[in-house]
Structure formats: C-alpha cells, structure tokens
C-alpha cells in the first residue's frame, strides 16, 4: 500500500507527541527518515517510520519484563450490520499500534472487507494477478483456517499467513477470503464433540500464547483483535469464547434495542454453559448531538447498559462516512490524522485500552 509521506506535524498528531519530541525520538532511535529534495531538507516520514517510532517510544518507557505482559484478546462484533464494525476494527488496530502495542488483527468475515481495507485482494488468483501485474504480496493465499490443527488442506505457520501492511511494528493481519467458510464447516461437522468445537479457537490462542504451538506462536503480541461477521456462526462463537472482551459498535443513527438485547442474551448463555464469556464494551458510533432522537437513544443505552458503554464515542463525520463507502480506503487515523473523526477514534482507542487494562509494551 502506498502512502504520501508525512511531515513531522502529522507524525506528532498520530503519536500524541510534540514535534520536538518526535525529532528527539528520531535522533535517539537511529530510525532512517528520508528528507525532502529541496533546500529545507524537511523530514518526510513513511508510515513504517511512524509505527517504528511508536514502538521505540513504548519500549523505552516500559521496564516490564516480556514474560510479565498480559495478552488481551478482544472481538469486534455486532449482531446487526451497518454500524461501522469493520471500519472500527481497522482503525482501532492502527491506534493500538500507534501506542507501541504489538497488535494482531484477525479477519473472520468471509467477505474479507477488513482485508481489502488494508490493501489486500482476496479475490484474485496468482495467475490472474500476474496477468494484470499485481504483486503476489498483495494477494491472499491463506487465512485463519490454515492455522488450525487438522486443517484438511494442510496446515501453515503464522509467518506464512500473516500480513504486515505497515511494516513490522504496525498492526499485523491474518487475512480472510471466501474459502474461510471451510473452517465453519469443519468446526460444525468434523469435531468429535460440540464443546470441543466451540473451544477450538480458545485452545489455539491459549497454546499459541504459551508457546506450545510452533505453528501459531503469538506470545509476542499484546493484543489479539478479531473482526467477526454479524452472523453468529461457529467461528464467531469460538472467537467470542476465546475473547476477554467483545467490542460492540452501536450506530446512534439507527439504534437497535434488539441487537444489544440479543448480544446480552448470547453472552449470558455462554457464561451459563462454559462458565465464562467476554466482557461487553459498547462503542457509540455516528453520534450527532444536534439530532434529538440520537440523544434520546444515547440516554436509553446509558440507562440499560451504563456499565458497558464506553465513556468516549465517535461523532458523525463525513470523513468517517466515506471510509464506509470505499473498501479501498486506508484507516482514517492514518489517511487524515488531523480531522475530528480521527481524534474521536484515537480517544476511543485510548479509552478501550484503559477499560481492557492494557499498558504499553
């Protein structure tokens, strides 16, 4: 994916720092930043530079030993569509990495919208890509199913599957495509017991975090973030059971009491059956305080789900709306770091990290 170079002012906005501190970080880290071909020799940062600086800053601040870090698993999920779920997944994963956190984002939607939004083509074959001159690195050969033990088409390692759209220190992606449907079929029909199928993803993550699975070593990640489809299939159920938190976006433009009520009942059923369920975090989206019905809906959510509602929400913005209409757009926080919607996204991401008790590095 190609980005226009960033000037130091935009980098400071993305990192929540001053321009002077950004310049000091560059000097201290030794990270190579290109300079503009002009008399001023202005530094022009690549997107990889920015995530490298974020990681450098976070590593410098912390004195924790790596083995003491807590890994958090969360699923972005809403029972209804049109709430900005996938857009928030891409932006939150970028925001987490901009705070120096090692973030693994897993696309579980067969439609692969998150995968597409991060610059990868899930539809083309290698032969078709060669005909139009698209590099193989932009294609999707493997997905989350290929990482599961006993995958019928041959298991792959995380290194073979993972994508790094913004470099080593940006968010990492396990992409999706239409053939991910096979995983749902496998979990539904081939598992010897329903409970084992439901807990298969939990076991995969648990073994991966403990370094017991050489194919899926995720021990170096601070956050694992699933982007789950609205349909509650076996994959989504497994992701929810594997998660510490479920982040549920709610559209303030067309709030559905049924959607939140349904999700609450699903979580209650999980807890009754398995003795655990993810903690619910509600993120209000498309908030327009000038519209009376919107504020009424927000009040209703606060009355019923006060403990679950995040203290920050995302206001309605034309900049934000455009990302929903164009799958090829990059995360808004990276494409327009100075706009109000990007500020809302950054604030929400910070509030999420606080709620999930995640600390840098």
UniProtKB/TrEMBL annotation:
Gene3D superfamilies: P-loop containing nucleotide triphosphate hydrolases. This is AAA family ATPase. It comes from Paraburkholderia acidisoli. Residues 75-273 form the AAA domain. The keyword rRNA-binding does not apply. Keywords: Plasmid.
